[in-house]
Amino acid sequence: MVPRTPLRPINSNGRRNTELTPKFRVKITEHEFELSYAKIAARHGLSASIVQYTVEQERLLRDGHSMPRSGRPKALTEGDKRAVIRIIKRDPFAGSDDIREQSGTTACNKTIFSMLRDEKYDHWEAQKRPRLKAELAAKRLA
C-alpha cells in the first residue's frame, strides 16, 4: 500500500481494513526467505502484526484464497431435502403439514416450497394430472 503523496486528492472510495488479495498474500509470505516481519511490513506499507498474522494463517488458506465464512446454517439439511422430495414424488398432492410431519423437519412452509421450486418440483405432477376425487372415481368405475 503506497502512501498518499502530498497534494494528491484523498480517495473517498477507498476502504480501510479490507481483505488482502491472494497476490498480496504471496508477497507477504516472503518471510520464508529470512526476512523479518518488520522488514516485510516496511516494504509493503503494512503493520508488522498484519504480516505476522498473514504468515501464521497461510497454512489455513486454500490456494491463497480465504476460507468461506461460517454464516447462518441452512434451515433444510441435504437429508431433509431428500426426504421432502421423496414425499412429493410419492404423493404429489401432499400438503405442507403432511410434508413437515412425514419428513420430521421444523422448517416453515415458505422454506420448503422455495426449496421445491429451486429443485424444479413446483406443482410438477399436479399440473399434469389433477387429483381424482372419490365421486369422480365412482363415476369412472360405473
UniProtKB/TrEMBL annotation:
It comes from the Eukaryota. This is Transposase Tc1-like domain-containing protein. GO terms for molecular function: DNA binding. It comes from Penicillium vulpinum. Pfam families: HTH_Tnp_Tc3_2. The lineage of its organism: Eukaryota, Fungi, Dikarya, Ascomycota, Pezizomycotina. Residues 81-141 form the Transposase Tc1-like domain. GO terms for biological process: DNA integration; DNA transposition.
